[in-house]
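Fold this sequence, please.
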Amino acid sequence: MKNILKESIRLSSGSLIQAVKVYKYVLSQRKDIVRENEGKCGIFRWMNTVNKKSYIGSSAELDVRFRGYFAPSRLNSRESIIYKALLKYGFSKFSFEILEYCCIDNLIKREQYYIDLLKPVYNLCKIAGSPRGRIVSEETRAKLRIANTEYKHTKEALEKNKHSIT
């Protein structure tokens, strides 16, 4: 089995773009993905092979970002659509693609290019680089303000954090 495949992505306009790397067997290729992308900066895409929905992301450290997708605490605690889809369908129903390697100075610009071009369904934020593109109602903002001011750590949590820092 070949680890890395080059694959074209057909756009609705009929034109093609070429992914730099395509990993079709994410679970069995985890170590390869981390090793081959260690210290690299670039744009990636998760592609659901069942429903063809995708997610575009970027990272200054692709290996670190990819590892994060396999952290159960992260997958279960986030409200991200891509995390929920990975849990629902399983990693075997996704391919992981490196769309482009680029320098950190162009990272957000290039991510935005691919978001605009491919219109990924799993991206809640249509603005690259942060959740700034997320639309949050005034009601949600008010709830977040209250939650942030009322939240108190339990004695157990404070003690646990105190020991983990020292």
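The domain at 5-125 is CATH 3.40.1440.10 (GIY-YIG endonuclease). The chain is about 40% helix and 20% strand.
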